[in-house]
Amino acid sequence: MLRAAGLEKAGQEAPRRATNKLRERLGQMLDRGQEAYHRIRAVLAKTDHPVSKQGFTQARQLHARLASAMEQVSSARNSSESGKELSESEVLIALLLSTQTVWSSPATRAVQTAQVALQPLCCDSALRIELKSNARERRELTNQITSIGNAYGEQIRQRCLEKLLELNVDDEVLLSRVEGTDLLTSEVEAAWWSDKPESDKDYQARIHELLMQIRYAQHDSLVLVTHDDVFNELFSHNLNATAKAKNSSLADELATGSVPHCAVVWCCCDFRRGDGAFITDFARLDDSLPAATLHADADVLSSVGSGS
């Protein structure tokens, strides 16, 4: 009897232990499910992130360096007339400064970067900034800093200005120039973003379409302000092997790494190639730009004259 009773008791305890373990596992699964749900909700709730205070400072620094480069190239050209040849970096910087148009992702921080950093190009030559939907950031649920648009058409200009004001930018001249920047919004007059994540196939098709827009653009040179995932896509699928061999470390960084904010990369594209490797040469230009010290916003702007 004792033994039988003991067996009966053991038989009752086993289901209880199994039930408790099952409850524990279900609780863990529920916790993980709730965590994933809140993570996805957080991503879905992300907005069109404006430039941060640090990002604004980086854009101002690039602005100052471009303004300084304009003076340096002008001086070098005067010297070249006397027989001195421009260096390779000076030639590339001169090409950058003589660009014929500026294209930008319609994301707020990209437009703000163009408006601030590229003022030496846009204000001096009255270049307009064309907003290109295909240059936007990839929509990913696994990336919690992915932006999603919430403004289109002329609303974009107003949002960019409002978000700069929230940074307490105490520079009326700069803000006036940002407000007066000529934005071409014909491609983003309606919602240019997607609420759904992009598959690899859809994303690659969009970037290919962007490349075709570049190929058939009416200009021979342009500046594209975009995001690091677009850099990664362009350099992982369209870089010529010979060009990659010349600077494999930079090629790998641009193809797979996180591209530094306000990085400037020059590319030469030959769309006559049949292998799809359109990028036949490239170089990192921001490292070659002359240094410039930000003493005060007014001082930097004065070096630009009346001309991101």
TrEMBL record:
SUPFAM superfamilies: Phosphoglycerate mutase-like. InterPro entries: His_PPase_superfam, PGM_Phosphatase. Signal peptide: none annotated. Gene3D superfamilies: Phosphoglycerate mutase-like. GO terms for cellular component: cytoplasm. One of its GO terms (molecular function) is phosphatase activity. This is Histidine phosphatase family protein. It comes from Chrysotila carterae.
